[in-house]
Amino acid sequence: MDAANHPFRSVLYIPGSKERALDKARTLPTDAIIFDLEDAVAPDAKAEARQTLAKALGDGGYGNRIKIVRINALTTAWGLEDVRVLGTAGADVILLPKVNTRSDVDNLADLLPATMPIWTMMETPVSVFNARDIAAHGRVTGLVTGTNDLTKDLGCRSRADRLPLMSALQMIVMAARAARIIAIDGVYNQFRDEEGLRAECEQGRDLGFDGKTLIHPAQIEGANIAFAPTAGEIDLAQRQIAAFEASHASGQGVAVVDGAIVENLHVVAAQRVLAKARALAEMEAQ
Ligand code: COA
Ligand code: MG
Question: Fewer CB atoms near the end CB (10 Å): N or C, the chain?
Answer without folding.
Answer: C
